[in-house]
Design goal:
The two termini are about 25 Å apart. Strands 9, 12, 13, 14, 15, 16, 17, 18, 19 and 20 form a ten-stranded antiparallel β-sheet that branches. A hairpin with a 4-residue loop joins strand 6 and strand 7. By secondary structure, the chain is mostly beta strands.
Amino acid sequence: MKYVFLSLFLAISVVCHAQGISSALPTQAAVPGGVAIVEIPGQKAVARAFYNKQRVMLVSQDERQLALVGIPLSAKPGEHHLQVEERKGERFSIAFSVAAKTYREQHLSISNERQVNPNPADLERISRESQEMNAAFSTWTEPEMAVTHFAVPTAGIKSDSFGFRRFFNEQPRSPHSGMDIAAPEGTPIIAPAGGTIVATGNYFFNGNTIILDHGHGLITLYCHMNEIDVAVGQQVEAGEQIGKVGQTGRVTGPHLHWSVNLNNVRVDPALFIN
C-alpha cells in the first residue's frame, strides 16, 4: 500500500506541473522568513530589482510586474526598500512593510556530541562546506519561465518547524531554515520543479546533500539523503527522482530537510506549496 500511495503521489506531482500549476504565485507573507510580493507601479519597463544588494525575481501577471522578495529571518519589522532599475538605466526605490513574527522554540537531543560541539578539524571542514554552499546559493540564471510554485518533494509527514529557535542538547543554535518531512529511509525524493543541479556533497551537518537551481534566484536544498541520484550540471524535470530519504549528517531520525532560498534568503517552503 505504501508504494501504491507513493506512485500516485509522484504521478500527481508530474501532472500538476504539466498543467502549469507552477505558474501560481507563492503565498504572500511579508514577515521574517516570508515572501513579500511587491508590485512595480505604473507601466515602467523594469530590468532588474534588488533587496539587500541581492537580485530579486521579477514576474508578470495580469499585465502587472511583480517582485517576489525573500525576507530573511533576521529582518526587523518596519519599512524596507526594493531598489529598482529601469531598462533605460533610471533607478528608483519602492517601500514595503515587514510585520513582526515570533517563532517557537525546538529542543532536540543529539547523541553524537561532535555534531553539537565540532572539533577544530570539523570546524575547518564546516567552513569549507559553507563556502561551497554559499556559492551555490548565489547562483543567478534566467530560464525563459520563472518557477514560482512547487510540488512536495517526498511523501511523508511535513513539519511546520521553519524558523524555530533551535536548541541541541540545550545549547542554542541557528533557527531552523527549512521544512522537515519525516519518511522511511529509501523513500524517493523528486524535483519539485525543473532546474539544474548546482552542487552535491556529503556535508558535516547536512549529510548527503543536493542544491537545485530553478532560476531567477530560486534555489532549493535537500539534506540527510541516503542516496544521491543526480550529478552537478544535470538538468532535471519536475517529478524526476533526484535521491532517497536517509538519516545522514545531524539528525534524530530519517527525514528530508527541504530548504527554499529566494534572493539568497531562506524562506518558508510552505509558502510555495498548496
